[in-house]
């Protein structure tokens, strides 16, 4: 702990195994930053953690309104946790809108910390409160702490010479300081962070540090808070950890892919929520041989990536669902020309513009089938923020080895959420080096660009600049071997089947089933970011004395070879998805197993409690039958 | 000998060949499948005859096309090539040219491909000034889809899709390219082998995006669209050939010239009436594009006048050169230390 803000503690200390805190305020209140800093403190302390930012698509919705509310939820614990938490134990509400939008999620007995300065008539009326909820008994079920955060912050900064408005803007750091005190968090990281962030404005940096300390000291000196809490470090697997978001992990995975493949990476992309941070991150790491190209539109982004791949680079494009719709034709060209391409879809609520800042898993069928013709592409879906690193390496490996576009299906929850990541040993990362064709491979010194490796069915990849191997490729059907234009009926039939066989033949690891009891009759099968809530729900079901088996799909195309056997081994298979049953449709069609589809499309991740109830009912039903 | 020694900045970095080359070296083994009499044949021959003069290694030349009759072009070239998707060739070529400074990248496109479905990519490629050469075959009609009007068809065009006449006002591709901040814009006729070759040569020399509009006859769906520019007696009084540093003068006996008019515009005048000194001396290197734009406006949709040659050729840093320079700068100033990147600033260690 740093000096300066830490004095002896008079209050009682309660030990907790886990806490969920939600910071909520206006879009301009800096709630994402506040939550992010608290998360970093928890990470530095060694807790396991999981976070969920939730913010509007508008940059600054009208101040003080419900649509303008931005929140950040962080779940930290002394054991390994799987989700950002269903409901907060502590809600910090910076204004009436934040209170109104979030109070329903706070369970009775929960702690509510309110910035009273904003609870004035005008703000209350704006969100439809007749009187102040702080003055009636509507909040009687909660432990309410009323703190005049703006006033206290301004008071603390009175001597800094900072204007009243600038001083008031530091109130989020006051809130952070107070919560940091309550939960015995380390503080030096935040102070260092603030001084770095505002390095060019030292007076602002010091003001924020002062506000942060004022919040801490407020907790320390007032007697309003009788108890503080400790959440011990988690007993995670040995190793060195850092906190990471999904988008950052994905970008790092691509940097690692550049190193491991020894290829330059060209990211051709167009800004879109919630994928833009991948572009932002990669654009900072050009020293790894990474080129980022912000194109004129989604189509140009993927086309530039494919053009770079044609030239022997690793082409990557990043987008969300609406962008995939625009890129479809180029993905098809990648399938036809059999060039490597990594296509990242950070899924968001749809259709159309949908819910740009909310999460959904509804692009699975678009990824699988959203192109003209028989156009198979491998699909990889990370299950958590840190897993995005490995998913990027895996997608790259498949793309390079099989010369094919690969769809990487992330989503808003994984992309913006964060968790501890055990750092991999760089020396242990997979070798992704590629062998380009350099010699003729056909009769009489000719080059056959569509001659295939008998094992992988990948075609020979000769890049421009290779003497003697000049050839032409394109979107028209290829003659087997030569790659020349061919309209022959039998050739087309053969090529369609070859392209399918190539993707079908990609070896993916067998599906593993987690069933500690070994007696489960119900299997719950998910994919992508629902891993956390499904896993948490399974733990609860088992804790209640019932058996349930869990498996999670990372490879959506091709499916693991044992998937059919796994599905048929259980009396019931439940498939929870944040869509209307897209994986369920594929499973029923492919394996003729009548899975139970449980779906929700609220723009938010599943809650563990909700899935627990669903699974419990099904398990009981099977046991009773 | 390098391309820089040869005075070809547009091809700097592209390896040259010491082997003498012939046009037939650039012919692929694929049968050319354009309609008999198509202007595309003439352009193909001109390009195949011209490329040996650059002395580049054939394997370092790439032709990228979109969709349309002209976009079959790469199949007939014994170089590397990609026949891509409708309108997207400039975007694909941008990625390729950015990734590979050692390639001479050519885009082959048509009036529908470049100006209709691919209009966005065309203008953004030109403003970025990516080092690639765009050959825009303009036949003022959709050929491959069997005869609908195109964005360069004259208004009122009667086609299968416009039996009562087309309503759209057409693009002037040269004006469009200049408005899109193009650094090199030229025009040639398919039938004018010498003029076309000269524009191609200058385009190849230019470092940056070069747009060459080629008037090309479609004998099936728009036959004779440019005949007035080829008929003796008509051609001379309609075609205005440009030559840098020379007064702009044309006509069978040089009786016409181009002079300045109001508001920065240009007009055609009889030399006998305005005098030789009034003629505009062509300056393709003028920084201000409004001069080249004024030239482009002399070309009328009814072909009463058509300016050919190089309208504009100015130097501006290219997108791909600058992109690569940023990567090189980053490599020179920061170590590519993956372990350090992954570790970041804040880590903690769990001991077993």
Automatic annotation (TrEMBL), chain A:
What is the recorded name of this protein? 2-oxoglutarate ferredoxin oxidoreductase subunit alpha
Q: Which InterPro entries match?
A: 2-oxoacid/accept_OxRdtase_asu, Pyruvate:ferred/Flavod_OxRd, Pyrv/ketoisovalerate_OxRed_cat, Pyrv_Fd/Flavodoxin_OxRdtase_N, Pyrv_flavodox_OxRed_cen, THDP-binding, Transketo_C/PFOR_II
Which key words are in the record? Oxidoreductase
Q: Which organism is it from?
A: Actinokineospora auranticolor
- Pfam families reported in the protein's UniProt record: POR, POR_N
Pyruvate flavodoxin/ferredoxin oxidoreductase pyrimidine binding domain location is: 265-480
A GO molecular-function annotation? magnesium ion binding
Domain called Pyruvate/ketoisovalerate oxidoreductase catalytic: residue spans: 28-215
GO terms of biological process kind: response to oxidative stress
Which NCBIfam families does the UniProt record give?
Answer: OAFO_sf
SUPFAM superfamilies documented for this protein = Pyruvate-ferredoxin oxidoreductase, PFOR, domain III, Thiamin diphosphate-binding fold (THDP-binding), TK C-terminal domain-like
TrEMBL record, chain B:
Task: Show where the Thiamine pyrophosphate enzyme TPP-binding domain sits.
Answer: 67-214
An MF annotation (GO) of this entry: thiamine pyrophosphate binding
Q: Does the keyword Oxidoreductase apply?
A: yes
Q: Which Gene3D superfamilies match?
A: 3.40.50.970
Q: Which domain of life is it from?
A: Bacteria
Keyword match Magnesium = no
* UniProt-annotated stretches for the region Disordered: 1-26
Q: Which GO terms describe its biological process?
A: cellular respiration
Assigned keywords, A-Z = Oxidoreductase
Q: Record's InterPro entries?
A: 2-oxoacid:Fd_oxidoreductase, THDP-binding, TPP_enzyme_TPP-bd
Q: Which PANTHER family match?
A: 2-OXOGLUTARATE OXIDOREDUCTASE SUBUNIT KORB (PTHR48084:SF4), 2-OXOGLUTARATE OXIDOREDUCTASE SUBUNIT KORB-RELATED (PTHR48084)
Any idea what this protein is called?
2-oxoglutarate ferredoxin oxidoreductase subunit beta
Lineage, highest ranks first = Bacteria, Bacillati, Actinomycetota, Actinomycetes, Pseudonocardiales
